[in-house]
Amino acid sequence: AYRWNLVVVLGAIIGGYIAVNFLSDGSTIALNSQTVADLSQLGFVNAGETLLPAEIYAWDNVLTVKGMAILIIAGFLVGFGTRYAGGCTSGHAITGLSNLQWPSLVAVVGFFIGGLIMTHFLLPIIFGQ
Question: Rounded to two decimals, what is the model's pTM?
Fold first, then answer.
């Protein structure tokens, strides 16, 4: 009855593999120079050169107390936020706003404020020197 879920997951994995290995040209990410400077100041060595910064996603960093705490807390917050908001960020922003849904507007504004708080206050605390 729920086999379609496994097909979606398998398709996402296969699609991601094909995209990275056969459809990517290997070019760097076009980040603003100020963003690169800010990330470098926080200790991100290859800011703008890789999709997944090693400072977060390398096994050496993931398998630390800090790395595990970041992933577990982030996963919990994403799951809680999705449930609490009644949908995901994309669903509210694309479908909800296009249908002029008041709860979606409130949710999207909340997502944006949360992103600003994370970027300007929490990220420097987590990765600050």
Answer: 0.53
In a domain, 39, yes or no: yes
HEC-encoded secondary structure of the chain: CCHHHHHHHHHHHHHHHHHHHHCCCCCCCCCCHHHHHHHHHCCCCCCCCCCCCHHHHCHHHHCCHHHHHHHHHHHHHHHHHHHHHCCCHHHHHHHHHHCCCHHHHHHHHHHHHHHHHHHHHHHHHHHCC
User: What are 83-127's pLDDT values in tens digits?
Assistant: 887 777 788 888 888 889 898 898 889 888 988 998 888 888 887
In a domain, 57, yes or no: no
Give a yes or no: residue 59 inside a domain.
Answer: no
Query: Domain count of the chain?
Result: 2
User: pLDDT of 11-46, one tens digit each?
Assistant: 999 999 999 889 988 777 788 889 888 888 888 888
Q: Is residue 73 situated within a structural domain?
A: yes
